[in-house]
Design a protein that fits this description.
151 residues; alpha/beta; Transcription Regulator spoIIAA; 32% strand; globular
């Protein structure tokens, strides 16, 4: 059974120090991020679907959401990056921190990526060997068909 929790908010880069929340827009500029959170497997697995940009402006929000989930006892986190348009070093740092925290609590962080720039970035940085990376949520949930490094 899937329980859906709506957390679709758009965070604007122009919000400066505090994240300004606005309703989800159909068209997002490069500096915005939408997060959709879904619970699966009786709430044991949380799936975060990110759309937009994970960068200096938006990474604190993602970092806080992932840390909050881990601290509330959610051990298995899946972060779907297939709709992400941009990912910078601060976004990677948020994902690395969440991976470390999940591991410290006996859990896991798995990433979903499509072929393209985000997959290439993970491959070039070597993070594809650090993270468990998959092409679909179903593969991540069943821990099968992990994406292998090509470099």
């Amino acid at each position: 059974m899937t329980q859906r929790v709506s957390c679709e908010l758009t965070y604007s880069h122009r919000a400066q120090a505090s994240a300004k929340r606005a309703p989800k827009c159909a068209i997002m500029s490069q500096d915005e991020l939408s997060i959709d959170v879904k619970r699966e497997d009786g709430g044991e697995v949380l799936i975060f679907k990110l759309r937009g940009s994970l960068d200096l402006a938006t990474s604190p929000t993602v970092r806080a959401a992932l840390m909050d989930a881990t601290e509330k006892g959610k051990r298995d986190l899946i972060v779907d990056l297939t709709q992400l348009e941009f990912l910078d070093s601060t976004g990677l740092g948020a994902l690395i921190g969440a991976h470390r925290r999940a591991s410290e609590h006996g859990g896991s962080l798995r990433l979903i990526v499509a072929d393209g720039p985000i997959a290439r970035l993970l491959n070039i940085t070597g993070l594809i060997r650090v993270f468990a990376v998959y092409h679909s949520v179903e593969d991540a949930r069943k821990n099968r068909s992990r994406v292998a490094a090509t470099i």
